[in-house]
Amino acid sequence: MLEIKTAKTRKGKRELEKRAPKLVESGKKTLILHGTKTSGVLNAVLAQIYHLKKNDAVKYSRKNENVKPFEAGGETSLEFFSLKTDCSIFVYGSHSKKRPDNLVIGRTYDHHIYDLVEVGIENFKPMESFSYDKKLAPKEGSKPFIVFIGEGFEAVDELKHLKEVLLDLLRGEVVENLNLAGVDRAYVCAALSPNRVLFTHCALRLKKSGTVVPRMELVEVGPSMDFVIRRHRPPNESLRKEAMKTSREKPKKKEKNVKRDELKGKIGSIYIPDQKVGETALPYKAKGVKRERREAKRKNDKDGENAPKRQKEDS
Over its length of 315 residues, how does the chain's per-residue pLDDT go in tens digits? Predict the structure, then answer.
């Protein structure tokens, strides 16, 4: 029996609230794992993927013997790591004679395996092999353009599935508005054949075009590689429907210090601190005091002038 533990501290409760399901989910984190045996090319590929997603990635450097995504029983350790790190996408690298330079990209739903895509790495070129102006180097955490070239991404099931997985892996947090000046990179995926995709990373150079929208040029900065699709496991239809459910109601922001009354409607309360008027320092000769004295003196003078006249009239 598994013991269910609850958070006893405020920090623990906040962490559980962050991991709880939300109507509008934040960006997905990526878990990067090594298999029992890896090659130098595969280690470089995993390091480059971690560099591209440095702000939203967790990388384990130890070898994992029990992780075998496509085999029954080999998913337990992977699902445990997903729950521990709160990552919904994983990249697993392994190397064998039958499947050299093998990369498995998968997604999880409720920290259980959702789908898997297995690709082989060929023609790998790291970032260090490209020469370009370092001023054009993309900044960490910037929002990318993702380009898919080829009819195969709309017609071939394997390429369709790879496109969905790559979009979730590379796009980061979903935003509604985007500043064009902050977009400085692009991922280009070109379908060379029904089972081969060219992947490359480019920097964007903005130039004047004579219009409001600038002209863009692509400068290849790496990494660059070919993905050869080997195996893929799409999600079950029932699981897909459950994972794609969305709420019709948008989350409402909490309004502080606001009440609603049936008769008066919306009522707001404003906090006003104590003014402490009695402790306020006043100048020695205030204009208001002088004015009061002058008015009192005039009044007394008028009363003095009128008093003898009334006495004479009475006499």
Answer: 445 567 789 888 887 777 776 666 667 899 999 999 999 999 999 999 999 988 889 999 899 888 989 988 888 999 999 988 889 999 999 999 999 999 999 999 888 899 999 999 999 999 999 988 888 888 877 889 999 999 999 999 999 999 999 999 998 887 778 777 778 899 999 999 999 999 999 998 888 888 887 888 899 998 999 999 999 999 988 888 888 877 666 667 778 888 888 888 888 888 888 888 777 776 665 555 566 677 777 877 777 666 555 444 444
b/e sequence 65-94, b meaning 16+ C-beta within 10 Å: eebbbeeeeebeebbebbeebebbbbbbbb
User: Distance between terminal CA atoms of the chain?
Assistant: 117
Bridge partner residues of 196 (DSSP): 193, 228
304: left (phi over 0), alpha (psi -120 to 50) or beta: alpha
The tokens for 235 are 């999600």
DSSP 4: P
Beta strands in 196-271 (DSSP E): 196-207, 215-233, 258-261, 265-268
Contact assessment for residue 71 and residue 99, using Cβ atoms and an 8 Å cutoff = no
Tokens of 66: 């029990």
